[in-house]
Amino acid sequence: MRHDYDLVVVGLGSAGLVAAEFASKLELRVAAVEASRVGGDCLWTGCVPSKALLASAKVARHMRTADRYGITPVEPEIDLAAVWRRIRTIQQEIATTDDSPDTLRERGVELVFGRARIAAPHTVEVDGRELSTRFVLIATGSRPAEPPVTGLPDAGFLTSETIWELEQPPRSLAVLGGGPIGVELAQACRRLGIEVTLFQRGERLLPRDEPALAAIVEQVLRDEGVDVRLGAHVESVSSANGRTVVIGNGTRVAADAILVATGRTPNVDGLGFEGLGIETGPRGIKVDARLRTSVDSVYAVGDVAGRHLFTHNAAHEAAVAVRNMFFPGSSRPAELVPWCTFTDPELASAGLTGAAAAARHGETATRVWRRPLAHSDRARAESATAGEIVLVTAKGKLVGAHVLAPAAGELIQMLALAIRDGIKLRELAGLVHVYPTFATSVQQLAGDAAYDYGRQWARRLRIGRR
């Protein structure tokens, strides 16, 4: 049976855009369905606006602490409305260039705006129109999860989606959730003069990251004036005198607004899986090693598939899925996916923490190598010594890398490659690193590993001569 399209992409966020563009370059017949705006979470509610906010916040911080660089510090005059307008300007610039619907159309992709429903294994229905296709790619992403807190819906709250719609941001903010989104926005808002109280239910911030580095981030936030409350069980929320009151652990905190950052929920509602046999779970659509759902012609990638909730992973999975559709069995999605929390300093990670490596490989085979930025010439030159590089090895091979430093998100790429390719840490000592850079600390740690290896061989030689 001949279909109207080779591929119908449902959702034009990071994953959908990559899939549609890639398939069009293969000269396939492609249609893409979008219920809202092209660009998805990354452009409109995630990476782009949050990083633009962080950039403004960093400038304000530099102005206040300019005396660290021999310059007279000043208290910045911050126009929050202007900061938010700058964010929207950047979004519009991207939306009218790289993520423009016209750009997609020029590449041969047919855009269909409306709500999609998977009516059959080879049919996508959009507001009554049926699109017949060989393959379907679901890339509908995720949305902020709403925690079950008494009174929260009635009191009203902001999320990482709605905060960017504000014309006049609040002067005080209660942030629920100490993961990457909550921590990034808490630091940025505080640097811009907003009073911030950060509630984290667990006993530490950023629970997925290396504990020692997450603890440094916590201290940085406290030093900058964020009221960090760990082990905080938020029991209820109410409104009083035009403000929102957060109640928990026997205390009451009043703020102009609440920002909920307690996780994500996959967007699977209304896709019409009933009767098709497409399986879903708490993390989203279940997929196999090739990113196929339980229906062979339907694939799912990105947040809606729940593997790794990062923009870069969504884009990677999209390319893998298209290859597997039209070049069967050709590739599998990466299991090693680095990530970065864009605080200042940034915290980037790839692979296993020290504890996870010991549990998997055994304590005797695992070693954790540490080098504080206080020993980095580049960090000293930039007055940015609040950080550390932590590398984890198992039988000498690099299995984990954790970097708390300026531009850690850039540095982690090299280390992720070394982990993926099973490189021994000491082998990195032979790679000439540019000096002075933060990466020089990696070479120094690799040198320590090489010296340690040499000492072991020297000891064996001495024993052999006896």
| CATH class membership of the largest domain | Alpha Beta
Helical/strand content category: alpha/beta
Please give the share of residues in helix.
25-40%
Q: What is the terminal separation in angstroms?
A: 80 Å
Q: What's the Cα radius of gyration? A: 25 Å
How many DSSP E strands? 23
The CATH superfamily of the largest domain appears as FAD/NAD(P)-binding domain
Provide the number of structural domains.
3
The share of residues in extended strands comes to: 25-35%
Write the CATH fold name of the largest domain: FAD/NAD(P)-binding domain
Averaged pLDDT: 94
CATH architectural group of the largest domain: 3-Layer(bba) Sandwich
Query: Major sheet: size, sense and barrel closure?
Result: 7 strands, mixed
Unreliable stretches: none
**Helix tally?**
13
Shape: globular
Question: What keywords describe this structure?
Answer:
23 strands, 466 residues, FAD/NAD(P)-binding domain, Enolase-like, domain 1, alpha/beta, 33% helix, seven-stranded mixed sheet
Notes on the protein architecture:
The protein is an alpha/beta fold and 466 residues long. The chain folds into 3 domains: 5-143 and 265-326, FAD/NAD(P)-binding domain; 152-262, FAD/NAD(P)-binding domain; 345-465, 2-Layer Sandwich (Enolase-like, domain 1). The chain is built from 13 helices and 23 strands. A hairpin with a 2-residue loop joins strand 16 (280-281) and strand 17. The radius of gyration is 25 Å and the shape is globular. The mean pLDDT is 94.
